[in-house]
């Protein structure tokens, strides 16, 4: 750790008057400045300026503690520590090879003016692209263990800004986004979609984080948190008249919020700020606020593409449960007689996917519905449904793992907990050891439904701890984790790089059985959900309309085919699914080539165009090569974007294969029409990207 104590060098100004003390800390590049002040009531407040304009006005810090006085006023400052930090680190996998961690830090230690003073510290880190703040409670006689009733931190925004938001809800993040002014939140709080099984929206002006904000002066801000450990999730409650947002943390089943024992600390509250939307997406501040990797063995952690027994169930072509096998005498959707059982995860079907993965260079095959319990998994609120170790009779668990490995492929084992988490905790250790013993080093977990048996929230402290316990236990068994319905990520994949990806937002699946995700959805996700970490969105759908399977079906994916290709770049994950059915890829081998070629681990990333809810272009350099892959997407509007290839190495020639929307393509009327063109490009080349409504372009740029 290159932590330099440089008290004298810091741009720290301190004025101590009769009543108020104030401090100022500027970012290394001096564009962001943090103002702290202890007011006449002995309360510490903070505010933030960006390029000399106030973006966070004087905001509060403190807590409501159960059965005690509020921890907010009546403090004196006992110590101020300041330092500067600048180093570079390398992630185990990621969007760039090197990550710069450069900030100024100030720690204010506060103690109550009382004969039994309680104490806490507030740590602020000021980066060139934002600010992080966290509370620390040292070990102390007057505050040993306590229950947080509320966190009182506020983010006092300076105006009625435009925000991209979903309703506050501590049980799900699977909403579409609203775009509105802050003052309109209550009016718009979106009707809940029938397909969100767990939704528990909070009434009032509540929104979830990561929250994306744009001011009238075109300053972009993102509020979220980093290193969420042993503490509940933070949503935000807005005062729609003053635009001040107050942290609102999830409670447990009996209404308590956080059970803490000193010494302890809260997660970081993060505010990313720039007048260029591209910087928000490129920010590494949330990662930097997480601790370095705690894993010593990372040899089993391998970014990969995978396919799997998944979409066929979401389309209703096969079932998770085995009892479907008995009913397998009906016809296929196209009228032909079924020759196979209806159960998806059979030995024969799994072999077909393994062969497909091996043939196309994919590292994994996800198998859902392999284990007993699916007959009872949903809506029955049963506690002991799955044991996570017993396969159905038509699934050769050990044999398939060996078969996969003999072909250089790994099976991604699926554990759907159906929200019965106490039950899962009982079986986790055995189940992970079994996986490890057969060489299955990747797990997809799922937490559909209310948390059984106590009715915890998915976002409460108990579940936050469960998700991390699972990641740690998985690492002990050399298992990578992809979690669905988890708490939304906060950069913990830096500390536990076996935590590859999470869902924690509305994924592709909604397009198959609900009104789906509007064309703007994927242009908002990178500014919101993905700020905390990679998403298992499951891109790559080629058969866009469900009517291809069921003539009367109205559901569809709300993009063009080539936008699906571009999503491999714009929705970052080190583990990406080739989601469509093998036969749909085999029918379009020219477009499938992009999915086969695209990398999943990167030495460099350039965000070239970005505007939340409208468009995004990202180019990434594949790890250890000179090859680049680029994805560009738009919302429901057709768009032209000027692409400049100056990110390429100078003096080199590249073959660019451009997968673009056909001239008459559009997400609703003609979504599968595409064109593929090959050209030679250099760092001097320019190209006009033409994106159809709901469209996108993907380009592979291979060094000649
Ligand atoms: C919801 C998950 O998001 C999806 O991927 C999975 O197939 C189903 N639950 C069943 O576990
Ligand atoms: Ca889900």
How would you sum up this structure, described in words?
The chain has 13 helices and 38 strands. A hairpin with a 5-residue loop joins strand 17 (211-214) and strand 18 (220-226). 15% of the residues lie in helices and 33% in strands. The chain starts with a strand and ends with a strand. Strands 1, 8, 9, 10, 11, 14, 15, 17, 18, 22 and 23 form an eleven-stranded antiparallel sheet that branches. The protein is globular and about 75 Å long. Helix 5 packs parallel to helix 6. It is α+β, with helices and mostly antiparallel strands and 704 residues long. It has a domain at 12-288: Beta-galactosidase, Chain A, domain 5 (Distorted Sandwich). The model is unreliable at 1-18 (pLDDT under 50). It binds 1-deoxynojirimycin and calcium ion. Calcium ion (CA) binds at residues 174, 484-485, 503, 507, 509. 1-deoxynojirimycin binds next to loops.
Question: Can you lay out the helices and strands and say which pair or pack?
Answer:
Layout (H helix, E strand, L loop, with lengths): L2 E2 L8 E4 L4 E6 L5 E7 L5 E7 L2 E8 L2 E3 L9 E15 L9 E14 L6 E9 L2 E8 L7 E7 L2 E4 L4 E4 L12 E4 L3 H4 L17 E2 L3 E4 L5 E7 L7 E6 L4 E6 L8 E4 L2 E2 L2 E7 L2 H6 L2 H4 L15 E6 L1 H4 L32 H14 L3 E4 L29 H10 L3 E7 L4 H17 L4 E5 L14 H16 L3 E4 L15 E4 L7 H4 L7 H4 L36 H10 L4 E3 L4 H5 L2 H9 L4 E10 L3 E8 L5 E7 L4 E6 L9 E8 L12 E8 L4 E6 L4 E8 L1
Parallel strand pairs: 24-25, 24-30, 25-26, 26-27, 27-28, 28-29
Antiparallel strand pairs: 1-8, 2-3, 3-4, 4-5, 5-6, 6-13, 7-12, 8-9, 9-10, 10-11, 11-22, 11-23, 12-21, 13-20, 14-15, 14-17, 16-19, 17-18, 18-23, 19-20, 31-32, 32-33, 33-38, 34-37, 35-36, 35-38
Helix pairs in contact: 5-6, 7-8
The structure holds 1-deoxynojirimycin and calcium ion.
């Amino acid at each position: 750790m290159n932590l330099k104590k440089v008290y004298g060098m810091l741009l720290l100004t301190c004025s101590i008057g009769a009543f108020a003390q104030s401090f100022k800390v500027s970012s290394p590049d001096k564009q962001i400045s943090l103002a702290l002040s202890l007011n006449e009531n002995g309360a510490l407040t903070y505010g933030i300026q960006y390029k000399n304009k106030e973006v966070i006005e004087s905001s509060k810090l403190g807590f409501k503690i159960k059965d005690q006085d509020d921890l907010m006023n009546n403090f004196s400052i006992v110590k101020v520590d300041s330092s500067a930090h600048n180093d570079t680190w390398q992630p185990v996998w990621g969007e760039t090879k090197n990550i710069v961690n450069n900030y100024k830090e100030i720690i204010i230690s506060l103690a109550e003016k009382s004969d039994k003073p309680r104490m806490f510290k507030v740590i602020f880190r000021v980066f060139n692209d934002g600010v992080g703040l966290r509370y620390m409670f040292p070990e102390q006689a007057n505050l040993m263990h306590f229950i947080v009733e509320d966190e009182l931190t506020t983010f006092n925004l300076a105006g009625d800004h435009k925000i991209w938001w979903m309703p506050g809800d501590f049980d799900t993040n699977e909403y579409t986004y609203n775009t509105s002014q802050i003052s309109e939140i209550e009016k718009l709080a979106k009707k809940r979609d029938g397909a969100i099984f767990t939704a528990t929206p909070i009434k009032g002006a509540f929104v979830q984080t990561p929250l994306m904000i744009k001011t009238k002066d075109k300053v972009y801000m993102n509020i979220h948190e980093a290193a969420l450990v042993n503490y509940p999730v933070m949503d935000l409650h807005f005062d729609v008249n003053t635009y001040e947002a107050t942290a609102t943390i999830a409670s447990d089943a009996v209404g308590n919020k956080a059970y803490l024992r000193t010494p302890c600390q809260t997660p970081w509250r993060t505010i990313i700020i720039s007048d260029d939307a591209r910087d928000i997406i490129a920010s590494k501040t949330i990662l930097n606020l997480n601790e370095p990797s705690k894993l010593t063995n990372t040899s089993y952690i391998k970014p990969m593409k995978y396919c799997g027994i998944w979409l066929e169930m979401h389309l209703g072509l096969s079932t998770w449960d085995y009892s479907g096998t008995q009913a397998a005498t009906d016809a296929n959707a196209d009228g032909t007689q079924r020759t196979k059982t209806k159960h998806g995860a059979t030995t024969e079907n799994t072999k077909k996917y393994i062969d497909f993965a091996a043939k196309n260079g994919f590292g994994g095959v996800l198998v859902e519905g392999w284990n007993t319990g699916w007959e009872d998994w949903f809506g029955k609120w049963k506690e002991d449904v799955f044991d996570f170790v017993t396969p159905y009779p038509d699934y050769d668990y050990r044999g398939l793992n060996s078969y996969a490995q003999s072909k250089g492929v790994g099976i991604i084992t699926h554990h759907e907990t159906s929200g019965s988490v106490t039950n899962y905790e009982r079986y986790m250790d055995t189940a992970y050891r079994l996986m490890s013993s057969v060489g299955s080093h990747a797990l997809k977990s799922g937490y559909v439904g209310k948390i059984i048996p106590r009715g915890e929230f998915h976002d409460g402290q108990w579940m936050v701890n469960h998700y991390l316990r699972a990641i740690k236990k998985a690492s002990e068994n050399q298992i990578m984790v992809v979690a669905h319905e988890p708490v939304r990520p906060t950069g913990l994949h830096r500390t536990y790089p076996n935590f590859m990806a999470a869902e924690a937002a509305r994924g592709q699946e909604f397009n198959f059985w609900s009104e789906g995700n509007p064309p703007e959805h994927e242009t908002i996700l990178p500014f919101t959900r993905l700020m905390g970490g990679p998403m298992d969105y499951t891109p790559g759908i080629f058969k866009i309309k469900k009517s291809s399977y069921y003539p009367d079906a109205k559901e569809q994916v709300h993009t063009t085919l080539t936008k699906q290709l571009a999503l491999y770049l714009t929705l970052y994950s080190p583990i990406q699914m080739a989601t469509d059915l093998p036969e749909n890829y085999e029918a379009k081998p020219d477009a499938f080539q992009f999915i086969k070629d695209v990398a999943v681990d990167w030495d460099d990333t350039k965000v070239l165009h970005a505007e939340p809810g409208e468009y995004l272009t990202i180019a990434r350099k594949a790890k250890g090569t000179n090859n680049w892959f680029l994805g560009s997407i738009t919302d429901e509007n057709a768009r032209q974007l000027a692409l400049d290839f100056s990110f390429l190495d100078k003096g080199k020639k590249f073959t660019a294969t451009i997968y673009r929307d056909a001239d008459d393509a559009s997400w609703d009327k003609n979504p599968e029409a595409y064109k593929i063109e090959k050209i030679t490009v250099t760092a001097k080349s320019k190209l006009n990207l033409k994106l159809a409504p709901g469209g996108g372009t993907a380009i592979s740029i291979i060094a000649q």
